[in-house]
Design a protein that fits this description.
mainly alpha
Length: 155
């Protein structure tokens, strides 16, 4: 919805991006609360759903990457909602969770709004065509950066 709304009213693109970011982060906090307070209630459904494999992956990522797992899920095509539940289940500290969500989701939504404001209808077609590739390229860059960081002997 953000792309067509920004395209229809470019003067309000930044406002739409802000509202989208805030609503998404609020939803992420709700997912965190579900994971923190009610995971036992949703686990049977989740384990039977198509999201179970993504949930298990998100748990593994959290154990290794924490903040960066939420950031990448917030920006990329990875299902952010599954990562929010996993963050709550694993009791990730709330402040880093919220910051990673705001940064990751904000970058994604402000990028979309900016592209629509700048490029118009032609950019919308390109965005629809390449958005997943851009998201996965971001994931790859973060993974490469993390591996390089580890190779330098950083803690």
């Amino acid at each position: 919805m953000l792309a067509p709304m920004s395209l229809a009213n470019p003067a309000k693109a930044w406002r739409f991006a802000l509202l989208t970011t805030l609503a998404s982060v609020a939803g992420g906090l709700f997912g965190y609360a579900i994971g923190y307070f009610a995971f036992d209630l949703i686990e049977p459904w989740l384990s039977e759903s198509r999201y179970w494999a993504a949930y298990q992956t998100s748990e593994a990522w959290f154990k290794k990457w924490g903040f960066w797992a939420i950031f990448v899920a917030g920006f990329s095509p990875i299902p952010y909602k599954v990562f929010t539940i996993a963050a709550g289940t694993l009791s990730m500290a709330l402040l880093p969770f919220a910051l990673a969500s705001i940064i990751g989701r904000g970058l994604r939504f402000f990028l979309v709004a900016g592209l629509m404001k700048w490029g118009g209808a032609r950019m919308e077609a390109l965005l629809h065509r390449y958005v997943d590739r851009l998201g996965w390229a971001t994931v790859a860059l973060v993974v490469i950066g993390a591996l390089l960081y580890q190779q330098t002997g950083a803690p």
